[in-house]
Amino acid sequence: MENVMQSILIVDDSRLNLQILKDILGIDHQIYCATSGKEALTIIISKRVDLILLDVIMPEMDGFEVCRIIKSNPQTKNIPVIFVSYMGEVEDQAKGLEIGAIDFITKPVNPSIIKARVKNHLELKRYRDILEELSMIDGLTGISNRRYLDEVLEKEWRRAVRTGDTLAVVLIDIDFFKKYNDYYGHVAGDECLRKVANSLKNSVKRAGELVARYGGEEFAVVLPSVSKEDALKLGEILRQNVESLNILHAQSEVSPYVTISVGVAAIRPNRESLSANLFSKADKALYQAKEKGRNMVSGESEKHIHEFKPILVSLAGQ
Question: Which residue of 72, 261, 269, 303 could cross-link 160, Cys pair, CB 3.0 to 4.6 Å?
Fold first, then answer.
C-alpha cells in the first residue's frame, strides 16, 4: 500500500474554527474544509477522506445527522468521525459515539491533544486499510480475489443501472489444467497460475477494469462501459497473450503450450435483472468454447460466436 499523505475533512460553520484546526493539522495532512453538512457530504463522495473532524451545531443539518448519513452509506461508513464541539456534556458525547463516531473532543481544542488523537486514529485507519487491501488479494497469484470481484461487480452493476450503460464479463479457464498439474506437479502448476494471472492483468489497460481469480484455474474480468464486440476483442487479446507465454504443456490436446478458453457476455443492466444473470451468460459462453475445441473465444449466443482455433502443432520429432 502506498505511503501517501492521509487526508482530513474538517467540517465547521465557523471559518475561524476551520482555520485554527487547519493551522494545527495542515503541515502533516491533506486538509479539506466544509462549512455545512451538505458540502461535507459532497466532498466525502468526490475525494479520498481518511478522517473527519465534525462540528455538532451547524445550520440546516447538524453534525449528528451528517454522521448518521456517513455511517449508513456503504461507501463512507468506514471513515472514522471525530466530533469537535462546544457541546461537551456526557449525554452529547454518548450520543455521538452511539451513532458511530470514534471520538469526541470538546472546544476550545488543545493543539497537542488534538494532534495526538488524530495521529492515533489515522494510524488505526492505515492499518485497517492495509488489512482490507490484503483481504481482497488472492494469496497465490497476487491479483484480486473472488470476494473483491463480487464487490466490484455489484458496484458496477448498480452504476450501470443508474446510467443505462453496458457491463461486460469475461470468464477464462486454463485448458486441461488438471493434466498439467498431474504431469508437471503442483509447484509448476502454481507457477503456471501466477504467469497466466500476470499476463491477464497486464493485458487489461483501462481504468476501472478488474482482473480477478474466480477459483481454481478460472479467472474473470469485469469490463464497465464495454460492448460485447469490444469484450470479444479483448478476450482474443487475452487468449493470444497467454499462449504467447510459451509455457510447455505436453498433455494438452489443443496446443503444445498452455492455452485458455474464454467466454464473453455483455448486458445493459436494469432494475429487474441480476448480476448473476451476466455471469451465467458468460459461463455458458465459456462452456461453448470448451465444447467447440477449447483455446478459443466465444460469445453467449450462437449468432454472436467469435472463435479462434489455432492449428495444433505436433511435438513429434522435435
Answer: 269
